[in-house]
Amino acid sequence: MPPLQRKLPPEGFVLARANLTPTMSEMAELTPTIQSERSKVESWRLHVLIEAGYPLPLAEKLAHSEADLHTAVDLIHAGCTAETAAEILL
Known about the structure:
The protein has helices spanning about 25-50, 55-65, 70-75, 80-90.
């Protein structure tokens, strides 16, 4: 009996997995990447907030939050104190 051969789809077609739920190994591979990207964004946000005039403790809280960065900077530039701006944003 001849060995079984897989029939490839025509060129340009993509095979899809029947189960679209990620496997545990796929999730394990994605987690460090997502955390790494998140930490890069938070680091950049921290830098922008410190440059705008926020003291480090408030800048860290805001950088790790979902607060709008542009609003945070605009409040400081409009004359709001960092403490008041943080209260508004958080």
